[in-house]
Specification:
Blueprint: H1 3-17, H2 19-53, E1 56-61, H3 67-75, E2 78-81, H4 87-92, E3 98-101, H5 106-112, E4 119-122, H6 127-154, H7 178-204, H8 206-211, H9 214-218, H10 224-256, H11 270-293, H12 299-313, H13 315-323, H14 337-348, H15 354-380
Parallel strand pairs: 1-2, 1-3
Antiparallel strand pairs: 3-4
Helix pairs in contact: 1-10, 2-6, 2-7, 2-10, 7-10, 7-11, 7-12, 7-13, 7-14, 10-11, 10-15, 11-14, 11-15, 13-14
């Protein structure tokens, strides 16, 4: 039996005995992401559907100056309420979603054929307020278009003549909050793998130092590279287990939530596809964490180093989540950056070229081999034990 495999079995047995650590890794680390993501999706979809159907209560300042407009708003399920003393304060305190201000000269401007001005006060940073504002703006634009068409018709002019260009907007993005979830899902998958690799690496290096079990292990007539390879294989296996549980959690959540309406395509075939695609990334994280964890002398020190490393490594994923830029060419060789983008494409149901599958995996494998080589060199140094 190969020495590295003996170390691999020994480390797995040690980890299985530490039930608290394994519970944190396999249950909290793997399933927290799917539960959080599906919960957010359910909440977002329900909120968008409710806000789109419910009657909006809109306080109006100067309602007496535009009675016809208010009747039109009521037809659009916008209920006109009494004016408030402090419109801006009421919006800031979330007492109301929006306030409409009608100036005294509104009717006079309409009679003269001049543009009539309205002021809609709302907080664009709040999701509910944005939905309400969009519906109010659409209703006011509809009223404005109707008045303009009537003016042209009264003058014997076909209203169509004012429509120089007709633009049809075909939106291919997912509905509601699913677009934000699409950019959030890869982040949850990647951070789950990283956290698993971080915990295992800290336990297999600094943890063994504190338990004083590392020195007897290194005293065996076995090459340090074999010991490192056994520990690395343990880390990779646990990381893949966390990834598989996370993908299974997302697949189960997709059966509980109708994600098809949100534009997500997460089928059972996505599990082996993403598992194969992300396996090299799990190897890279395990090698990276093993290399950095070898520096630490205590578990607390290892956790400090590895936590900072997790934040630094997740920066590409967070940038891709915000920018949503296309990754192509040599950028596909950049791990995390390319993986984040391509996970999104898979969930959208897009077809990918073979280079888009191979190049990110090749980049992750190359980085993983480099970190594994550096970790093996650390295991050979006397300072690793003494």
């Amino acid at each position: 039996m190969k020495p590295w495999f003996i170390v691999f079995r020994k480390e797995l047995k040690d980890l299985s005995r530490d039930r608290r650590t394994m519970t944190n890794i396999l249950v909290l680390g793997a399933l927290l992401g799917p539960v959080l993501a599906m919960g957010l999706l359910m909440l977002t979809m329900k909120m968008v559907a409710d806000e789109a159907e419910k009657t909006i209560r809109l306080p109006v300042q100067g309602a007496q100056y535009a009675p016809v407009l208010l009747d039109y708003l009521a037809y659009s399920r916008i209920q006109v309420d009494e004016p408030v003393e402090d419109p801006a304060g009421a919006v800031r305190s979330q007492e109301v979603e929006a306030v409409l201000e009608i100036p005294p000269d509104f009717g006079e401007r309409l009679r003269q054929g001049r543009p009539a001005e309205l002021t809609l006060i709302s907080d664009h940073s709040r999701t509910r307020a944005r939905i309400a504002r969009s519906r109010i703006e659409s209703a006011i634009q509809g009223y404005s278009s109707a008045i303009g068409s009537l003016r042209l018709s009264l003058r014997g002019i076909d209203p169509v003549i004012s429509q120089v260009i007709t633009l049809h907007d075909q939106d291919l993005s997912p509905d509601g909050g699913a677009a934000a979830l699409l950019s959030f899902l890869p982040y949850l998958l990647i951070i789950g793998i990283m956290q698993a690799a971080m915990v295992v690496a800290a336990d297999l290096t600094a943890g063994e130092r504190e338990r004083q079990s590392l020195e007897p292990l290194m005293a065996n007539p076995v090459a340090p590279e074999q010991i490192m390879a056994g520990k690395l294989a343990t880390n990779v296996l646990v990381s893949l287990a966390v990834l598989l549980l996370s993908l299974g959690g997302f697949a189960l959540g997709s059966r509980m939530v109708d994600i098809g309406e949100a534009g997500l395509n997460f089928s059972l075939w996505s599990i082996p596809l993403l598992l194969t695609f992300l396996a090299p990334l799990a190897f890279m994280f395990a090698a990276l964490m093993s290399f950095v964890g070898a520096f630490a002398r205590t578990v607390k020190e290892a956790q400090t180093y590895l936590s900072l490393l997790v934040l630094a490594a997740l920066m590409p994923s967070m940038l891709q989540m915000v920018l949503q830029s296309r990754v192509q060419g040599s950028q596909l060789l950049l791990p995390i950056w390319s993986h984040n983008y391509l996970i999104n494409e898979v969930l959208r149901g897009e077809s990918l070229a073979w280079t888009e599958w191979l190049l990110p995996s090749a980049g992750a494998l190359f980085a993983g081999v480099a970190f594994a080589f550096l970790a093996a060199r650390l295991y050979r140094k006397p300072g690793f034990i003494f």
